[in-house]
Amino acid sequence: MTPENGSASEKWNLRLYTAGQSPKSLAALDNLKRVCEQHLPGRYSIEVIDLLKNPRLAKDDQIVAIPTLVRKLPEPLRRIVGDLSDTERTLVGLQLTQIK
Amino acid sequence: MPGKDTMEPISADFEKELQALREKLEEAEDVRRAITRGEVDAFVVGPGGSGRVLLLANAYQRYRQLVERMSQGAVTATANGHILFANQRFSEMLGVPLAQLYTAPLESYVTVSDRARLSAFLMVSARDSQIEVELNRRDGSSIPVRLSLASFADGYASLLVTDQRPLQWPSVAVDALDSIRSSLGKLNQSLAGDAAGRDALSAIGEEINGLARMIDEMVDVEGSAERKGSL
Known about the structure:
Chain A is α+β, with helices and mostly antiparallel strands. Chain A has helices spanning 23-39, 87-94, and strands at residues 12-18, 44-50, 65-66, 68-73, 78-81.
């Protein structure tokens, strides 16, 4: 099956905003990696933006809470706030629900 | 008055604006949900989301444990030298309970001759700078330490305090070495007529001497030759 947005071969570009090694940031990266490996193997890239090092980058995607995941590609842009511990919600947020 | 069936159709612009508002509401609801579920531990504050990152207290837990358990002392002080935070190791260095350290002037634990240098160090707070001073312990003794500026933010200096005393053999190791020496001495006497046995004993003694020298080099201890030579 294919995702709602984009073809099965389309590259997914994900950006995760973190705050150093805060527990929720680490959990979000761990959960994101697991979801991607399961649902998007070989066709995703994760860019981690540490806002403790450069808080100004928060402006780009209007980040207010951390961690926040932003799906840059495929469009449209999607944003999920939190540590991604709710896998079902993460899949819905990324519009990956149709991939099995 | 016009009835429902006579209402103006919704314009495309209005529909677009409505959709944008719906999306903003969804985003705000998503943030609220993540907060109430405890899924976030930091916030970006400031105009236009371009300001600072504030961490919730529990986000510091990992660093706090690290700082509390490290072998160096750690102190955060104001520019005029009042202690706002100290770790357990710093408390042990001074022999002063942690509770007494908070808000105390750091200079009160530094020897009088080093106080002016400490004040200058805290005022300038040049990154990567460090000074060596002597700390006064509660028992009247003193410890040479190196103060290194780890960070300086919001008017507070975070310092690493490194004990400059040379490492020493732990007393338990010295006792063990003495015990081995005593046993070897007794064995040597009992092997008076056994040349082969004494040779073997001598070889064991040399091995132990070599081991002791290795440890000495690791801990950089002076004046321990008498321990090694007597085996």
